[in-house]
Amino acid sequence: MYGGSLDQANAALRTYVQEHGDRPWTAEELTELARLRADWTAAARGTRMAIRPVQGPAAGPVSGAAVVTAA
Questions:
Q1: To 10 degrees, what angle do helices 6-20 and 27-45 make?
Q2: Structural domain of residue 33, as residue ranges?
Q3: Does any domain span residue 56?
Q4: pLDDT of residue 33
Q5: pLDDT value for 46
Q6: How high is the pLDDT of residue 2?
Q7: What radius of gyration, in Å, describes the C-alpha atoms of the chain?
Q8: What superkingdom heads the lineage (predicted)?
Q9: Domain count, the chain
Q10: Which among 48, 61, 56 has a CA at the least distance from the CA of 3?
Q11: Is residue 30 classed as helix, strand or coil in its secondary structure?
């Protein structure tokens, strides 16, 4: 699913976890969870995210720990 819809992958992952509830995971369920996470990761890598400019009083220069990069 490389480059697939991030929204679809996110929805599938969230639905699966919510439907699972608060009980221990079986090996089969963990396998499916890993597959859904891989789908989400692939979709996220294929998505371009817009970077919004900082606005307001904190809109000064960025330095040190405030700098964050995406992989």
A1: 160
A2: 1-48
A3: no
A4: 93
A5: 80
A6: 42
A7: 17
A8: Bacteria
A9: 1
A10: 48
A11: helix
Q: b vs e for 46-60, b when ≥16 Cβ sit within 10 Å of the residue's Cβ?
A: eeeeeeeeeeeeeee
Q: Is residue 40 part of a domain?
A: yes
Tally the residues of the chain.
Answer: 71
Terminal-to-terminal C-alpha distance of the chain? 19
pLDDT in tens, 15-41: 999 999 999 999 999 999 999 999 898
User: In the chain, which ranges are continuous DSSP H helix?
Assistant: 6-20, 27-45
pLDDT of residue 49: 61
Six-digit token string for 18: 């919510």
CB 4 within 8 A of CB 38: no
32 touches 16 (CB < 8 A) = yes
Residue 24 lies in a domain: yes
- Is residue 36 a part of any domain in this protein? yes
